[in-house]
Predict the structure.
Amino acid sequence: MADEGADEAGAPAVALSEAERTLLFALRAPAGRAATEEALGAEVGLPPEAVRGSLQRLRSKHLAVAEETSVARPRLTARGEATRAAGLPERRLLDLLLRRPEGIPPAALEAEGLSGEERSAAIGILRRRGLLADGAPLRRRAGAGPPAALPEEAALEGVARGEVGDAGVFDALKRRGLVALDHTTHRRWSASEEGRSLPLGTAGAATLGAVTSALLASGAWRTGTFRPYDVRADVPFVTGARPHPYAAWLEEFEEILVGLGFEQAEGPLLETEFWNSDVLFMPQEHPARSIHDALSVRGVEGRLPPADLLERVAAVHEGRALPGAAAPITPGWRYPYDPAIARRPILRSQTTAVSARFLARRPAPPFRMFSIDRNFRREALDATHHLEFAQCEGILGEEGITLRHLVGVFRALAEAIGIRELKIRPSYFPFTEPSIEGYVRHPRLGWIEVFPGGLFRPEVLAPLGVEVPVAAWGIGIARLAMVALGISDIRDLYLDDLARLTGREG
Amino acid sequence: MPQATLSAARLGALLPRPIPAEELERLLFDSKAELKSLAGDELRVESTADRLDLLCEAGLAAHLAGALGAARGPVPIAEGRGAGPAPSIVATAAVDPIRPAIAAIVIDGPDPHGLDAGLLNEAVRFQELIHATLGRDRRAASLGIYPADRLAFPLRYDLEPMAGVRFTPLDATHEVAAATFFGEHPMGRRFAALGTDPTRCLTLRDATGGVLSLPPVLNARPLGEAAAGDRRLLLEATGTRPGRVADALALLSLVFLARGWAARPVEVRYPHRTDDGRSLLAARPIELTTELLREVSGQAYPTLEVEQLLGRARLAARPTPHGWRVEVPPWRPDLLTARDVIEEIILARGVRAEDGLLPPSPTRGRRLAEVRFRRTHAARLLGLGFVPLMRPVLSPEPLVRLLGRTGAIALANPVSEQYAVLRDALQVSLLAALERNTRFGYPQRLSEVGPVVVADRASETGADSRVHAAIVLAGEGMGFADAAAAVDYLLRADDVRGVREPAELAGTIPGRGARLRLAGEIVAEVGEIHPRILAELKVPVPVAWGEVDLTALWPLVRRPAEAPTLKADRPAAERR
């Protein structure tokens, strides 16, 4: 960084406008001279307003100082000028009483040219001076000779000459609005020590502002001096694009799964009930499949899966033997399976449907698959529930896969997100047996349920033709994301507030 | 998951020793139940949907006694020895179309005091829980409790003309006609559809013709009114399927059998067959092999330990040449197969995180090529300075209507109009975001790369889930060319160039909309948003919009080696 006072080229590091720089030159040559604003203006050829403003800015930058003297000048107001010409009301009343020795009622004074305000002032002053007799009508006090000049008259004339005179009388006239006192501050400007030492370059050289293409083309920058900027001044607030926090977090989680050997899969958001539930051995009368829990759509019809697969799934639901088998693999749910329900489209309520579609392709073992995608449930919207939420689903299948391998995956996932403590408890899902849930200890939230999973039931695998054991797990990843992102309202995951997304809060 | 509020005192009376709250919490955590709260006598417990037996004091106590090692093997079923012939129910053929299944048992109290108010309350509360869960709000199964000593057998389960049925509802003092009951009584109105046809209703009468109940709705007084002091009860269940009816009845019977009541099956005589009811109280055998246990658990279990663990799970096991024959009591309908029993063994022993193993074979992890392709587009938009959004697919119905997106699929059962339509274009979400950010200042440049759902009759699911990349530019001077330039950039980055053709697009100014076609496929849309829309959204600046269908673009630009995406069952060529 350059020295606080000047850069390498000798240009001042303090930001100066052209006018400020010109004035500072004038102030510091010759040394010790102090000049008025008028004189400076005449010297540098700037209008008074520009001179005054620039000098004030130089002072605020501690580059100029002003020696101030304040002068008070009395003057007659417009009303005072008129009164001086017409005579003070008290003088006019005295003159009237001289002409009317019998006296005159106060009410008649207005007809004699004295306004109500003038009448009150005149009567009051003459009484205080002992020039009026008591009682009405108004009459001169006997023996009181006409004064040659009242003090107010003398003061008024003094003000007309620029003199204040008796302060008490002046104040009285000021209260009557006849005189005023004008204060004028006179400044004599000179350069401060800092202003004298500030490098300004060559006097008379052009000061350069923004670098323009014209400046570059003309080469004028070679002879001028660049005006320094106030680098501490506020600059415009720039907002830019940055990755959506939730999307970025999901991508990071994907990285973990890819690193653990899982390959990604996707499936349709609008599913048939067959793929969403039936193939997962969820009975068609399962409460989670009611209109109160699943979201269905209008005007869309789905189709049944291939007939042989439909028949195999129907067989395990009804507790019948699979085609070609001698006996049922299990008692099943023992109800009449309804293909009409199987073809109904609903919004996918679990990414396990993606696993089912993956398994239906009969992947060659060993296989590990994951899917992070959206699901939909008919939830009342609140801080912890959303109709639309992401789940992370995963399966691993090969000969010899057991519950312990599933627990091993839970451990690896927990460690990958920085959590060491994991405990397992029993759970229940229609499509896995055994079913477990992994709880992890979060440093702030304590034990939270993160990893539900289990081994797919034979009722799921056999109709799909999968002959190796398959462990499956699903993570409520939205919840995990909320924890990781410090979000307390699930709706904030779908944030569209630009102030927050761009970092300009409020 | 289902929850129930139990009496801590009644539970405690059945336990081998007092259990402190912390220990109870731990014991339940290791089971399929969870302690939600304990305040005074109120014990709030939640269980998984398959273990309803843990939601009554008797069932939970049986489980805890096993977990504590204080009891082993199944809760014994004492055999009832009532006088005279076996009680029976005659079910007529008329009930078949509505509610064909019925099952019942008669139970006798173990002491001269018989039923007390606490036990009756526990049974009624559990009965309602079964109705709400397993019974599917009585549609699949409903239960009744009756004073058996006051009944004359055989009972008759029939579908009778409603005009001939009069009874006194359990909560009433006067007899009413069945038609009046179904028309006026809250229970009658709520459940009429389950127990009636246009002119008839289900009835359960005793041999004297007295009405016990109108299944599955409400019992009748006095024959359907069990009370404290009753020493013999009839537990009955009706429903649409025998299996569900039997399961419901067995669960309810646990409340009594665990306290030593003796049970006797009730014979049901259907028109063409007779069920002696003995299966209702019989244990189901499940064969478990040591090989399967090792395959599933990944561990070897000594024979003795298996039998001990099953005993603690309140099951009985007898050794066989290849493993064990496990006896499952009737109130455990969750145990269907050997795998279900294995789960009991594993969980009785406990699963430790330390036992976790890495999968046997290494596999290569990878993202879908199409997902990487989308991410590339998202990164390009970010590079152009577009703020990325991630908005729900479920979109506001008023906005979709305003835009005239008539092809968007609407929900049949929306929760709110703000989440009532599946967006078929990201245009909806981006304009909604502009509407919510009118105070932010302009220009605004927003983008989203995300899923949309497009109706498609040819698809297996009736719709196609696609991924689009879209932008909006809002600010003075923004127009068609700005959006078109950004879309051109996205396509150019994939080494392709679309051909723009005029199009009237939803939400845009006529004459200022275009589609981009590539190899005959429509891959993008561009347009200037109509001021009518902007005025409605209170967006004070012009807005240009562009949207690329990445799902359409991907097969046109991908390299041959890249793997296809798992999609619905239709080849790419058929789409659009």
Remarks:
- Chain B touches chain A through 97 residues (CB under 8 Å).
- Chain B has 16 helices and 29 strands.
